[in-house]
């Protein structure tokens, strides 16, 4: 299989972490791409009409895209149990929360990097950060029991999201006021799969 990716993407990192946690990294050939809005490489567009990364080109089926599709496929392929067979709803909700933090964080970067300065909206950027802030508060107050439980896709998604905040938005100091979440993130970041995928 071939994984089309960019190392700076938190969604790609989520897939790479799953590949490592499920011992499937050697089954995938990595293709590093440079992507930007309005500048989709031709080979990526051929594999994924949406033009987004990550995209997993399989030898025996359609190309898979969207990190949630890819990670679920990899989990099923390895029978790893990152998506619990019984009562999966909390893990899925945590995955969605982590992915939403990533989406808002990436959107903030794109607003500053790819829009003309005169067209940039400070209030829109702050609205994205407000989504992140609400998610962080909820994770810290509601989800610590699950985050401290057996490894699943929700933990991986949240960890990659928090890692992206460190990578692109460290000046926002997301840890302030989220002591339990910050302590968990530090511990989770020590996993081999996380250490090997730091952007």
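^ structure tokens above, recovered residues below v
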């Amino acid at each position: 299989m071939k994984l089309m990716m960019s190392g700076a993407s938190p969604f790609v990192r989520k897939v790479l972490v799953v590949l490592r946690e499920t011992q499937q990294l050697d089954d995938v050939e990595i293709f590093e791409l440079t992507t930007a809005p309005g500048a989709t490489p031709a080979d990526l567009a051929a594999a994924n009409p949406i033009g987004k990364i990550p995209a997993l080109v399989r030898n025996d089926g359609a190309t898979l895209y969207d990190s949630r599709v890819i990670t679920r496929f990899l989990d099923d392929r390895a029978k790893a149990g990152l998506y619990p067979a019984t009562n999966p709803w909390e893990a899925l909700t945590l995955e969605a929360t982590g992915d939403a933090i990533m989406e808002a964080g990436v959107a903030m970067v794109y607003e500053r990097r790819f829009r003309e300065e005169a067209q940039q909206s400070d209030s829109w950027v702050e609205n994205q950060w407000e989504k992140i802030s609400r998610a962080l508060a909820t994770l810290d107050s509601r989800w610590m029991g699950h985050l401290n439980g057996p490894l699943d896709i929700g933990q991986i998604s949240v960890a990659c999201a928090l890692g992206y905040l460190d990578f692109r938005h460290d000046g926002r100091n997301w840890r302030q006021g989220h002591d339990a979440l910050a302590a968990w993130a530090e511990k989770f970041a020590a996993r081999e799969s996380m250490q090997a995928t730091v952007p």
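The chain has nine helices and four strands.
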